[in-house]
Amino acid sequence: MNLSRPALLTDHYELTMISAGLRDGTAERHCVFEVFARRLPTGRRYGVVAGTGRLVELVRDFRFDETEVAFLRETGVIDAETADWLSRYRFSGDIDGYAEGELFFPGSPILTVSGTFAECVLLETLILSVLNYDSAVAAAAARMVTAARGRTLIEMGSRRVHEEAAVAAARAAYLAGFGYTSNLAAGQRYGIPTAGTAAHAFTLLYEDEKAAFAAQVAAQGKNTTLLVDTYDISQGIRNAIEVAGPDLRAVRIDSGDLSVLAHQSRELLDSLGATETKIIVSGDLDEYAIAALAAEPVDMYGAGTAVGTGSGAPTAGLVYKLVEVDGRPVVKRSENKATVGGRKLAVRRHKPTGTATEEIVVSQGMPEQLPHDRALQQSYVVGGEPAALPTLVESREHLRQCLISIPWEGLKLSGGDPAIPVTIVPAG
Amino acid sequence: MNLSRPALLTDHYELTMISAGLRDGTAERHCVFEVFARRLPTGRRYGVVAGTGRLVELVRDFRFDETEVAFLRETGVIDAETADWLSRYRFSGDIDGYAEGELFFPGSPILTVSGTFAECVLLETLILSVLNYDSAVAAAAARMVTAARGRTLIEMGSRRVHEEAAVAAARAAYLAGFGYTSNLAAGQRYGIPTAGTAAHAFTLLYEDEKAAFAAQVAAQGKNTTLLVDTYDISQGIRNAIEVAGPDLRAVRIDSGDLSVLAHQSRELLDSLGATETKIIVSGDLDEYAIAALAAEPVDMYGAGTAVGTGSGAPTAGLVYKLVEVDGRPVVKRSENKATVGGRKLAVRRHKPTGTATEEIVVSQGMPEQLPHDRALQQSYVVGGEPAALPTLVESREHLRQCLISIPWEGLKLSGGDPAIPVTIVPAG
């Protein structure tokens, strides 16, 4: 379900390049573009491919209506020939790439777009916007899931990021293994379970905390979460159990030293007979804060700002580069010499135990396939038509399996090298 | 022009609170919520209010259609009474706040929302999403504008952020004083001038650089910008002038040590007679990199990633807090004691020379007005109806004037205290 028209979510220069290329016919040359990261954010050991499912729908809807073409004409961005071409535009090429939930490393060709220069270059901005944001969120969220060691995570960062980015962030966090989101649009669009009960404002609305808790329990029953830190946490917990009884599902603590408070709260709940009542903590949690609570009696984490902003790496650093023109490999000469032209195929190599050891990326050829290799690319779009894709739940399971497969050092939160090396084999 | 339906861009708990409050009537209590920042991002000296113009349109369109209500009912988020209430929902309260382009500091009440609890709490998530993102971008962009010392800036970061966030970022950067954006949707929706000519891919598409330059000049004339760093920059500049002649408008350099390259390129251009040809530089520029180029012969900067991601502060830290219920000030007791309940009015105090000295914020009362004080709040929505707002160009000029008015230390890029203090006067 796309809610906005994607065609103008595009950089001006994509259209001036098309205008120039259409005049002399070069815009019709067959090209291959690849999306990859030159490096991971500082200290990160893997990236997570996310957003491709969303992207395929946007590519399908990428058409210019009369108003958009008129805007481009009137502002002088395009000439008459380009206006005519755009009004008939529909991507008719192929898109292949790594599955959503797949890990990537510097040089992994995570998306390959082939077709004429014009039809492919036109998608550059949108492709990078979607993949850079969603992958940044998914990578940060995956680290939080690792840090949570099996405890459930709730994504609640919508208010910290652009309102539509929030929906994409909820999707990427769920892909990464979060259990719930607070974002209702993500629930509607993607079927992600949503969660939420009450804010401090609800408690402040009533004469006292007990009245607020009573109103909440009257509406939602005991299977709810009472927020106990509006005034005094110990008294809040006593009030919660007094009002809801020891069968209350959960309390939430959103401030203070969560490590100390979780411990004290557990003891107090147990002393009140609420031994099954869960403790949910929230408040500026990132992967490090979550890891620091591993030994505390916490049942669930709410994470917000750090999810939607990529926990220090708000964009994934993915670029979209022309690698082939009419079958000829091309490369920008002045850049890092490691860049290799030509369309690439990739496999991930594993030990017989299933542990990944290396990624092999071959330009203009087939990688040798060893027994435990896994080919990394799948079809997303064939001749302009979207291919059948895994569900979001399947992609989520795929990522879970990928994270099991990397060497254990790759799951450390501390800074270090990529979990596995990528070997790029040039053409010829 | 809103392109998506905003009602579900909302946290689940806003609706469970409304459900609970409607059962006992408390949801109809008259409330005042305020948006403010407890602190600025580390080292920042001011915040910039941005997004309110966008927000007012979203509030106007904030309605629940049948599909949305059905989704909320079927998933058990709301009960039947709340479903009925939501299907009739339309914000009927008042929204006041600081103008777009106004500066803010810790404690500045930048937005005040009043009405029933239910109608106000429902807007919390959307209000914070819009203001947190747009203000984060505007503050970073304003620092870049200061660093550029009058030279023109082009926002070209769309590909680094969520595709819809990119449009909001272009708007916020223009508000902050950028001259152009690469984002076409921002051009269409907000009338912001767009710019762009060609990427490295365009040069790679042709047999050689001169052929690519010739194609671009044939399409766009000499009043274009040739990207000269695909192969060798010196040869690129020679090729550019050979093809376009010394009247070429500009060359762009997107890689390498821009300081050295700008200097060498200026000398080379001058030696080729292209003394009027401008030099545009781009490539991971933030406010510090821009400042470092102040003495170099650069004419224009292209800034991308750092703009859309807030240059290290991707969210503005704004919160939405209930401060008054039926005229009674309320405050969450366990937090920082500096928090003051009650609806607040704000003025900025100035020296007779026009330099700002202090912000005075009074709870439940009128600030004393001295001769050079300026009241900071204006009407955005009155009784549910949007008020007349300044244009984006007017808001841009307002910010420019505000930045002139703060003490000069406030414009330093280095870390430090807020440019002026905020004095909050409690009620009574």
UniProtKB/TrEMBL annotation, chains A, B:
Care to name a GO molecular-function term for this sequence?
nicotinate phosphoribosyltransferase activity
Kindly state which keywords UniProt assigns to this record, in alphabetical order.
Glycosyltransferase, Ligase, Phosphoprotein, Pyridine nucleotide biosynthesis, Transferase
For the keyword Phosphoprotein, the answer is yes
Q: Which top-level enzyme class is recorded in the Swiss-Prot or TrEMBL entry?
A: ligase
The record lists the catalysed reaction(s) as: 5-phospho-alpha-D-ribose 1-diphosphate + nicotinate + ATP + H2O = nicotinate beta-D-ribonucleotide + ADP + phosphate + diphosphate
GO biological process assignments: NAD+ biosynthetic process via the salvage pathway
This protein's pathway: Cofactor biosynthesis; NAD(+) biosynthesis; nicotinate D-ribonucleotide from nicotinate: step 1/1
Residue span(s) of domain Nicotinate phosphoribosyltransferase N-terminal: 8-132
As for PTM, the annotation reads: Transiently phosphorylated on a His residue during the reaction cycle. Phosphorylation strongly increases the affinity for substrates and increases the rate of nicotinate D-ribonucleotide production. Dephosphorylation regenerates the low-affinity form of the enzyme, leading to product release.
One term under GO cellular component: cytosol
**E.C. numbers:** 6.3.4.21
Looking at the record, the residues that make up the Quinolinate phosphoribosyl transferase C-terminal domain are: 137-307
UniProt KW Phosphoprotein keyword: yes
Q: Which InterPro entries match?
A: Aldolase_TIM, NAPRTase_N, Nic_PRibTrfase-Fam, Nic_PRibTrfase_pncB, Nicotinate_pribotase-like_C, Quinolinate_PRibosylTrfase_C
Tell me which Pfam families the record gives.
Answer: NAPRTase_N, QRPTase_C
Read off the Gene3D superfamilies from this record.
Answer: Aldolase class I, nicotinate phosphoribosyltransferase
Its function? Catalyzes the first step in the biosynthesis of NAD from nicotinic acid, the ATP-dependent synthesis of beta-nicotinate D-ribonucleotide from nicotinate and 5-phospho-D-ribose 1-phosphate.
Q: Which family does it belong to?
A: Belongs to the NAPRTase family.
Name of this chain's protein: Nicotinate phosphoribosyltransferase
Report the source organism. Answer: Micromonospora polyrhachis
